[in-house]
Amino acid sequence: MNRLILASLISLATVSSAYAQVTVKDPWVRATVPAQKTTGAFMQLSAAADSRLVAVRSSVADMVEIHAMTMSGNVMRMRAVSGVDLPAGKPVDIEPDGFHIMLMGLKKQVKEGDTVPITLVFAGKDGKRQSVEVKAIARPLSAAMGSGGDAGNMGH
Amino acid sequence: MRHQRIWLVVAMLVLAACNRVDPSYSGIDVTGAKFGKDFRLVDPDGRVRTLADFRGKVVMLFFGFTQCPDVCPTALLRAAEVRKRLGAEGSNLQVIFITIDPERDTAALMREYTVAFDPSFIGLRTDLEGTRKVADDFNVYFEKIPTGKSYTMDHSAFSYVFDAQGRLRLVVRDDLSVDQVLADIRTIMKFSPSA
Questions:
Q1: Taking CA B176 as the corner, what is the angle to CA B175 and CA B181, rounded to the nearest 5 degrees?
Q2: Assign residue B100 a region: left if phi > 0, alpha if psi is -120 to 50, beta otherwise?
Q3: What backbone phi and psi angles, to 5 degrees, belong to A52?
Q4: Where does residue B45 rank: exposed (0-12), middle (13-18), buried (19+ CB within 10 A)?
Q5: Cα–Cα 20 to 30 A to A86, which of A21, A74, B12, B138?
Q6: A38–B113 C-beta distance less than 8 A
Q7: Which residues, given as ranges, of chain A have pLDDT below 70?
Q8: Bigger pLDDT: B161 vs B150
Q9: Is B68 in Cβ contact with A33 (below 8 Å)?
Q10: What is the rounded distance in angstroms from the CA atom of residue B19 to the CA atom of residue B3?
Q11: What CATH homologous superfamily does B25-191 map to?
C-alpha cells in the first residue's frame, strides 16, 4: 500500500517539474500578437524548504524581470522586485494580479500552443543557488486569468 | 388648509419620482459629469476619431497599455464577453481601448491587440502630449515607472460607458463581473435608445 502511494507520488513529481526544494506547477505564458514585444509568464511554486526565487531567464526574451502588481484604490501599479520569497510548504502563485514574470524584448511572436523555455533560479536559506528549467505553454492572449481552471477554453 | 397644500405637493413629488423609475447600476452613475466629454484620437488606419463618430452606439472605453499583464486583458476580455452575450444588440456596443503608452503601443500593435479580443474593438492612440490631455479629460491617472532596464505604467483601471447620444453615464470598476457590466449596458441601451 505504502509502495503504491510512493509510486503515485513519484509519477506526480515527474509530471510537474521536479526539483529537490521547489515544485513548479502549470507554467504558462500569454500568447502575443506579432507586434507585441512583451508578455507575462505565470505558474505556481511550492518550496519544501524556505527559499527565494531570485532570477529568471529565457532564451525567447532580451530581458526578464519579476514584477509585483497591486491595486491601490482603482490604480494598477507594477514594480520590479528583486525576488519572491517562497515559505516552506506554502504554494506561491506567480499570477497576473500578483507577482509575475515579464518577458521583455521578445525575439518573435509567442503563438498559442508554443512552449517557452524558462529558467528559474532559486536560492536556499544557505544562499546556495539552483536552476530549474520549465517549459511554459502559451495560452491565448484573451485567456482568462488563473492557472489551470480555464484549460477548457484552449480547445479552439 | 396650508397643511393640505403641503401634503398635496409632497404627494405630487412622490408620484413624479415613481414615474421616473431611476434605473440602478453596478457601475457608478456619473450622468451629467463635467469630465469625459469627448476625445480626439487616431485609429490604426490613421483617421482622427472623436466621440461623435460613434453616435447611435453605446460606447465603453478603457485606458491601458498592451504590456499590462492583468487588468487590461481582463477588462478587454470582459468587454468581449459582454458584447457576445448581448447577441444581436452587441452591434450597438462599441468598445474602445485607448493606450496610455503610445511610445510602445504603435498603431499596428493596437490593431492586432484589440482584434485578438474582438474584431469590432478599436484601439486609439495619439502623441504623448495628447495622451496626457485625454487622460486628464477623463480624470485618468497614469505614470511611467522605470523598472530594471525598461519601464511600466501605473494607471487607473476604470471603464467609461457612454449612451447612444454620447453622454458619459457610467464609470465601471475593474472588479465588476461580466453579469454586472452586461446588466448595466442593457439598462443604458433601454433607457437611452439609439433611435
A1: 150
A2: alpha
A3: -150, 135
A4: exposed
A5: A74
A6: no
A7: 1-20, 144-156
A8: B161
A9: no
A10: 24
A11: Glutaredoxin (3.40.30.10)
CA-closest candidate to residue B25, choices B172, B162, B175, B164: B172
Reading the block at residue A133, the C-alpha cell is 528549467
Give the nearest partner residue to A76 out of B77, B112, B157, using CB atoms: B157
ipTM given for this complex: 0.72
Indicate yes or no: CB of A142 within 8 angstroms of CB of B149.
Answer: no
Say how many residues make up chain B: 195
* DSSP run (H or E) holding B12: helix B2-20
Strand-strand pairing, B122-124 and B93-99: parallel
* Model confidence pLDDT, tens digit, residues A53-98: 999 999 999 999 999 988 888 888 888 999 999 999 999 999 988 8
The pLDDT mean for chain B works out to: 89
Looking at residue A8, its pLDDT comes to: 53
Closest residue in A to B117 (Cα) is: A142
Asked if A25 and A44 count as a contact pair (C-beta separation under 8 A), the reply is yes
Q: Which residues pair with A133 in a beta bridge?
A: A119
Candidates A36, A100, A103: best to mutate against B (most CBs of B within 10 A) is A36
Nearest to B148 among A65, A76, A100 (CB): A65
- DSSP assignment of B85-147 equals HTGGGGGGEEEEEEES-TTT--HHHHHHHHHHH-TT-EEEB--HHHHHHHHHHTT--EEEEE-
Distance from CA of A148 to the nearest CA of B (A): 16
Amino acid at site A149:
G
Tell me the helices (H) and strands (E) count for chain B, helix number first: 5, 10
- Whether residue B51 contacts residue B59, with contact meaning beta carbons closer than 8 Å, is answered with yes
- Domains of chain A, CATH where assigned: 20-142 (2.60.40.1890)
For residue A38, the chain B residues in CB contact (below 8 A) are 66-67
| Element (DSSP H or E) covering residue A27 | strand A22-30
